[in-house]
Amino acid sequence: MQRRQFIRLVGGGTVAAAFAGCSTDYPAAAVAAWQGPADGADLRRWALGYAILAPNSHNRQPWIADLREPSSITLFVDRERLLPQTDPWFRQIVVSQGTFVESLVIALRERGIDPRVQFFPDGEFEPHGIDDRPVARISWQPGQPPAPKDPLFAQLLRRHTAKVDYDMTRPVAPATLESLRGSQVDAGVRFGATVDPSRVETLRELCWQSAQVELLTPRTVMESVRLTRVGPDEIARHRDGITINGWFPRLANALGAFDRSAPPAEGSAAYKQMMSRFEGHSRSAMGFVWLSTPTAEHAAARTTRSAELRAGRAYMRLQLAATELGLQMHPMSQALQEFEEMKPHYERLHQLLEGRPAAESTVQMFCRVGHCEDQAHAPRRELDAIIRG
Ligand SMILES: Cc1cc2nc3c(=O)[nH]c(=O)nc-3n(C[C@H](O)[C@H](O)[C@H](O)COP(=O)(O)O)c2cc1C
Predict the structure, then answer these.
(1) Which site in 53, 56, 62, 389 is 20 to 30 Å from 378, CA atoms measured?
(2) What strands lie across the sheet with 328-331, from one edge to the other?
(3) Given this model, what pLDDT does residue 280 score?
(4) pTM for this structure?
(5) To test the ligand 1 pocket, which listed residue (57, 210, 224, 277) has its Cβ within 8 A of the most ligand atoms?
């Protein structure tokens, strides 16, 4: 049936029409933000033009920037853009606010402004909840003496997360990891790294095992399936989520063979592709880096959410520093996800990385590192989509 449908489509020119232009590039408007903001733009819009390029979980871009107060930007979580199945405590969403804040600060420094960053100005969210209070207020006094620029600014338009297998003939030098450590400015966020072959092998295996838990648990894989944008039309319409623009998935989509209403059936082409992608990423890790924060200390001080913001800021600096060094860095968050089925991997990863349970030290970011060709930038929505006021 499917074969006959395929032949009919090809014969009728439908497939040719679907792929007119023969390009796997993302639609220009979807990646226009990577050209950087216009020079003449208002200062806050200019700086926000860099902040929206921050890495963020599932490219949800879960930000609202309120500009109603002059010389200040108040950041809120866009609660329409959460990931409740894979991120039930919204920890990754809060980390993704931290990456935004750090990019914003780096951009403002480029314009001579040293902003004051106040986390949770109206009080901190509950450790496992999110509400409508602001996440951060970034403010400054106009006319202050110029602040020193941050050299990482040069990497903001270059940075990206390369989601392909890494080149297994190119090891990562321990000295490279040490240079990454130098990008860190917050002593409250611990940096860890390894390229030790036996440790790397164990962690590769754990990545793959934990990926299988996410992919084979219907409600968690469906969260990703619903956010998958296949082909230029869907990518241009949403400009977020998981973007796929290769020929084969586009063909499958045009044929109606990419079902969005159920997890990919075991043995199907979509299933095999999904599994081999995660396995390839896991097994081609050439090293790992991670960031952690003390758990009990923050719980006692009621600063669990601030710790996540700080980790996000630290991660932003880490990935920019990696970009500067020509190193790829890709978060592998599966084992850090707090849903029930993941618990054994969650605890094991904490023991492997920190030698302590998660109750003592929370790993906030866990990433593979390695080398590959630079990849296309991920789409971003228009700046106006996140601005309030
Ligand atoms: C908190 C956090 C968790 C992330 N976890 C993953 C992950 O598990 N797998 C993955 O492929 N990318 C992960 N990413 C990377 C995002 O998917 C990526 O930043 C987003 O798609 C935008 O792409 P870009 O970084 O190339 O701009 C994560 C990013 C953040 C900030």
Answers:
(1) 389
(2) 190-194, 288-294, 361-370, 328-331
(3) 98
(4) 0.95
(5) 57
